[in-house]
Amino acid sequence: MFPSVEAGMSYIAEFILRYDGNVGRWHSKDFTIQKNYIKDINTTIPKISNKF
Fold first, then answer.
1. How far apart are CA 41 and CA 23, in angstroms?
2. Taking residues 3-12, what's their average pLDDT?
3. Confidence band of 51 (pLDDT split at 50, 70, 90)
4. Among the residues of 1-52, which ranges form H helices?
């Protein structure tokens, strides 16, 4: 648990930099699983809405 959204985002940014931009490392240490995770991230279409 992070004390704020800013603290959480700062940690994630630092984590990604620590692993040379490998966002798959967040999900797993296994290289094959990392590749699949990155593929899934890259094919996900974010759905943003201003309606509730």
1. 9
2. 95
3. confident
4. 5-18, 31-43
Contacts of 35 (CB under 8 A, 6+ apart): 24
Residue 19's pLDDT is: 95
Write down the residue that tokens 């094919």 correspond to.
43
Total count of residues recorded for the chain: 52
What are the b/e assignments for 30-48, b being 16+ CB within 10 Å?
A: eeeebeebeeeeeeeeeee
Q: Helix, strand or coil for residue 50? A: coil
Distance of CA 33 to the CA centre of its chain: 14
